[in-house]
Amino acid sequence: MTNSQSLERALQILDLLDRANEPMGIREIARHIGLSNAIVQRLVNTFLEHGFVEQDRISRRYSIGYRAFSLGNSILRKDRMIVSAQRQLEMVASNHELNGYLGRRHGNQAVYLLCVQSVGPIAIRNSPGELAFLHSTAMGKVLLAALDDAEAEAILREKPLPKMTPATITDPDVIIKQVREAREAGYASVVEETILGVISVGAPVRNASGEVQAAMSVAFAERSSPHLTIDNVAPIVVAAADTVSRDLGWSPG
């Protein structure tokens, strides 16, 4: 196994432990990764020595260690976009009872960078680092709108799009039309495409060059929040995203 292959396998182990709901044993890890027990044990021992993995003294099983959390917290503390977005999303959550999210495109999906829970009735089901579909989320459609039509269409036609709810739009032609509208309007919205009863609105976060760096979005339940609509929520999200963009050096106009 080459050095690059060893690194790839090691990262797969960390990713597996991060996604696991409970600690895992060496044989279980080896089965998921497709490596021998001996190789997995060697890699896990290295992580254990440096604090990236912890071992339960009784079960002898492994879970993510404090150093991995420390690295994640370092990003939250030092990344200017994340610090600014955290502040804006907390204000939106407090003032408007809207759950807030920040994410960026990762290939043909979006990855959550922040998830902020409000006192509203919707419980957040996502965590930073988790992936989301581009075609069925407001965040995703904002990120698609940052691409040209050809690139966005290539992503949408790469493979059949999963239908999350009966309302999920999976026709690439229809989604491309929505992406163009989002590009023109400066925000995107989805109605019950990911979770029934939930509406989401998203807006772009731009860097100093005006390029879309990420997307912010909020979600609310239509029945329990009748005072909230796409029309009155969109300006809130756009204003929050624009504030983050200005913190990154962007200037409108």
Automatic annotation (TrEMBL):
Which terms under GO biological process does the entry name?
negative regulation of DNA-templated transcription
Keywords attached to this entry: DNA-binding, Transcription, Transcription regulation
> Which sequence ranges are marked TM in the entry?
none
Chain ranges of the HTH iclR-type domain:
4-66
Asked if the keyword DNA-binding belongs to this entry, the reply reads yes
Keyword Cytoplasm among record annotations = no
The cross-references to InterPro entries, in alphabetical order and at most eight, read: GAF-like_dom_sf, HTH_MetabolicPath_Reg, Tscrpt_reg_IclR_C, Tscrpt_reg_IclR_N, WH-like_DNA-bd_sf, WH_DNA-bd_sf
According to the UniProt entry, its GO molecular function terms are: DNA binding; DNA-binding transcription factor activity
What's the superkingdom here?
Bacteria
Pfam families assigned: HTH_IclR, IclR_C
Domain named IclR-ED: residues: 67-250
Under which name does UniProt file this protein?
Transcriptional regulator, IclR family
